[in-house]
Amino acid sequence: MTTDSDPESPALQYHRVILKLSGESLADAGGRGISSEESGQIAKQIAQAHKSGCQIAIVIGGGNILRGAQFSGSNSLVQEATAHSMGMLATVINSLAMQDTLERIGLQTRVMSAVPIEKFAETFIRRRAIRHLEKGRIVILAAGIGNPFVTTDTAAAQRALELDADVILKATRVDGVYSEDPEKNPHAVLYDSLSYEDVIRKNLKVMDATAIALCHEHSKPILVFNFKKDGNIVKAISGDTVGTWIGKRS
To answer: Could you read off the pLDDT of 106-127 as tens digits, one per residue?
Structure first.
């Protein structure tokens, strides 16, 4: 593992982070499936960030394969709880893909699942996850928290608290949090920083309400940034000005 003394290493601002990726971040332009090019680009950024000595745990969604919410409603042939279980399995698929992509470029990883699935991943145990991080392994956290009706945003907040992460890095395809959807309104305002109360009051679609409430209650900051800009993951873990900061700054 590369240390801070390496002249090519980025400066270290955070000791341990949760990197929250959507399933769509791994997908092709249509937002479906897994693109080796897209996942490879993310892996390269993670490798650069890892050089600083920052301990990185990753939570990946499953929306590029299946979302539990797709099956909600009385006309669905699949019960919603079952659909959420299917969505959890989609996150396992994405986690295994990211594991191989990271290991292909020389990083040590562990996939840890909230649902026992020993043939494919370790079962999540908090102390074991921390030990992996301390040994310089990138930990990929799959299957949410193992229960239906819980998003991977909430899983990221929960794991950030359990693993004592300094910050949640919420990777998106826009530059941060806007007053409105910038892809629909080009005049939407980009916020530099927000309080948790601002996010709730303005009904900003940053993370789901449960995730924001958890972070608010435990003063866990969130940095929302554009991972599509090369180098932004490194900037985020280095404490550079990038994206929108939610919560109090230390």
So the answer is: 999 999 999 999 999 999 999 9
Task: List the one residue out of 161, 170, 165, 152 whose CA is nearest residue 114.
Answer: 152
Report d(CA 175, CA 228) in Å as an integer. 9
Set out the domains of the chain in order of their start, with CATH numbers: 16-246 (3.40.1160.10)
Annotated binding site for UMP: 62, 145-152
- Binding-site residues for ATP sit at 20-23, 63, 67, 172, 178, 181
Task: For residue range 151-202, list pLDDT tens digits in order.
Answer: 999 999 999 999 999 999 999 999 999 998 888 898 999 999 999 999 999 9
pLDDT greater than 50 at residue 1: no
What is the 3-state composition of the chain as percent helix, strand, coil, each rounded to the nearest 5?
A: 35, 15, 45
Phi-psi region of 226 (alpha: psi -120 to 50; beta: other; left: phi over 0): beta
238 or 76: which carries more pLDDT confidence?
238
**Binding site members:** 20-23, 62-63, 67, 145-152, 172, 178, 181
Q: Can you read off the two tokens belonging to residue 187?
A: 């005049």
- Strands (DSSP E) contained in the chain are 16-21, 55-60, 109-113, 122-123, 138-142, 167-172, 193-194, 222-226, 244-246
Cα–Cα dist 149/135, whole Å: 33
The pLDDT score that the predictor gives to residue 205 is: 85
Helix orientation angle between 209-217 and 152-162, rounded to the nearest 10 degrees: 20
